[in-house]
Design brief:
Distance between the termini: 48 Å
Number of domains: 1
Low-confidence stretches: none
Bound molecules: iron/sulfur cluster
Mean pLDDT: 86
Shape: globular
Structural class: mainly alpha
Oligomer: single chain
């Protein structure tokens, strides 16, 4: 059964596009509940308004479910995004 709970916070961009996709709506609902400060990032990515860097950031946040420390400590060097993951200083 689909989760019919409303988003705690919804922006105009979310209403315009992302809600049309059930999977994206579910993700935005989960992000709004667990990490509301990251909601705008996911909305920008879903709306095609984010750049690659933000898309990678959103993917890593999704992968580690909003745990910035876990992204910093990520040891999955086989991941194609590993060298581009956010919250770390690259080239050191
Ligand atoms: S680099 Fe690490 S945190 Fe980012 S998507 Fe890959 S496995 Fe997940």
């Amino acid at each position: 059964m689909k989760d019919q709970r409303p988003l705690k916070k919804a922006t105009k961009t979310t209403e315009n596009t992302a809600f049309r996709d059930a999977k994206r709506a579910k993700m935005l609902r989960q992000v709004s509940e667990d990490a509301p400060s990251k909601l705008a990032l996911f909305e920008r990515v879903y709306d095609g308004k984010a750049g690659r860097k933000e898309a990678i950031k959103a993917q890593c946040l999704h992968c580690c479910w909003m745990d910035v420390a876990a992204i910093r400590e990520c040891t999955a060097t086989q991941c194609t995004l590993w060298g581009f993951r956010p919250f770390v200083r690259h080239g050191q």
